[in-house]
Design goal:
- Strands 3-4-2-1-5 form a 5-stranded mixed sheet.
- The protein folds into 2 domains: 3-120 and 221-251, 2-Layer Sandwich (Beta Polymerase, domain 2); 123-213, no CATH class.
- It has helices at 3-10, 19-22, 79-87, 91-96, 107-114, 116-119, 123-146, 151-170, 181-188, 194-213, 223-244, 246-251; strands at residues 11-17, 31-37, 53-55, 72-78, 102-105.
- The chain is an alpha+beta fold and 253 residues long.
- Helix 8 packs antiparallel against helix 9 (181-188).
- The radius of gyration is 20 Å and the shape is globular.
- The protein is 55% helix and 11% strand.
């Protein structure tokens, strides 16, 4: 079974991310599709394990099409790897669980989305901040070299910092920028000075630090709940394969 077949045949959840999910899309925006696939359990009984992620352009199953005049970029994680990253409060993975643009979902995918709160914790303060710091260094390097940042990247960093602050304040992760759309798009168009953007970023970082001290989020994610979910879906996959005879056919190929 090729990596592309794994994704095409065993995706449990896929969604659109990027500007379209954030409410920041323009006419030329690409469509970024992110997915989660459940590799059949018998594949883990071989020396060569299934891939932890697959990147490329192929046909993901979808229940509704998202129109796009730009490119379509696709990336999928195997379920266990996705959960590992989510438990570490990886910003990109956590945001996938909260996309308003779901393309495909099955029963396992619905169980995964039902676990969204189990992944959230105050650890997000540090992981979002580290990610933001890396992006900020790239912006500063562009300013030194070119005299201005890449405004699109500056816009997305402001969005991320806002999302982090609000998550720590409320305990809920919302990725659509809502009323901030026009203000952020003005940054993308270069209509806001770099000095103003720097001040905005510094204020959001300080507000996140303040929110972290009294956040309603737990200090740690609910690992036991996630582990129980993973064990159960792996066991069900093995039982289904055994019942259908797929275990023997898979191991003999």
């Amino acid at each position: 079974m090729t990596p592309e077949q794994l994704v095409a045949d065993h995706t449990v959840y896929s969604c659109v991310m990027g500007s379209r999910a954030f409410g920041l899309a323009t006419e030329d925006s690409d469509t970024d599709v992110r997915g989660v696939y459940l590799a059949p359990t018998p594949l883990f009984w071989r020396f060569e394990r299934p891939p932890t992620h697959v990147e490329g352009r192929w046909g993901l199953p979808c229940s509704n099409e998202v129109e796009s005049s730009g490119r379509v970029e696709q990336f999928s994680w195997e379920l266990e790897r996705f959960c590992e990253l989510a438990l570490r409060a990886n910003p990109n993975v956590l945001e996938c669980l909260h996309s308003p643009l779901v393309q495909h979902i099955d029963d396992t995918g619905r169980e995964l989305l039902a676990l969204r709160e189990a992944f959230l914790s105050r650890q997000a303060h540090q992981t979002f901040a580290r990610y933001a710091l890396g992006q900020r260094r790239k912006l500063d390097a562009d300013v030194r070299q070119y005299g201005a940042p890449r405004w699109k990247h500056a816009m997305h960093l402001l969005r991320l910092l806002t999302s982090c602050r609000d998550l720590l304040r409320t305990g809920a992760l919302t990725i659509d920028v809502g009323a901030e759309r026009e203000r952020l798009l003005a940054v993308r168009r270069g209509e806001v000075s770099w000095t103003e953007v720097e001040s905005w970023m510094a204020r959001l970082a300080a507000e996140s630090d303040q929110a972290a001290a009294r956040s309603p989020l737990p200090s740690e994610p609910d690992r036991a709940r996630v582990a129980d979910f993973l064990f159960r879906v792996r066991r069900e996959s093995a039982l289904e394969a055994d019942t259908s005879g797929a275990v023997r056919s898979t191991l003999n190929t």
